[in-house]
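Sequence only, no structure available. Ideas?
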Amino acid sequence: MVRFENVGLRYGFGPEVLRDLSFRVEPHSFQFLTGPSGAGKTSLLRLMFLSHRPTRGLITLFDKDIATLDKDNLAGLRRRIGIVFQDFRLLDHMTTFENVALPLRVQGRSEGSYRREVTELLHWVGLGDRLSALPPVLSGGEKQRAAIARAVIARPELLLADEPTGNVDPALGERLLRLFIELNKSGTAVVIATHDIGLMDQYDARRLVLHDGRMHTYE
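Reply:
I predicted one. Tokens follow.
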């Protein structure tokens, strides 16, 4: 599903923040991406989501070399990916319900066909009483849960999540992890970036460890 071969990334004329990355993410797999602050976890997720281009090396996504794709084809690949970034990226003029339903609207579905599943998911993540709220009045934890719900609602083929449990209490964090695990069981490949060793130790999952911009893999 994802293949990196000798990939490097630098910003401007600075040093490489990621270097010589070679690894794969297989379909239906589940893995944690970890490493110290500043190791490049967010940069790596941005490469996987196609919001950054590598400085060097080859990235293949869904069996397509991203270097050969135009904007329309890149956009088509992004629609197959669910993404949760730390800045949430909710649209302030849309309600919580509308933000979460957006991927289904993009697919061309009518509101009547998805209202129940969006509402049920929002209740499951603890936002059942915030359906009509706009993002500016949500807390950080509520925004995070809304972003997670939006990322998973369309059952993407690949889910990328950057510190998805960072702004919630441990009990809710475990509940959200169970949501990712159930999504994985239904066929979605999952990559979760986290520095929470205790959380990772609860699950028997592959670990992709970044240190000084380089990758180490532990099965």
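The radius of gyration is 17 Å.
Hope that gets you unstuck.
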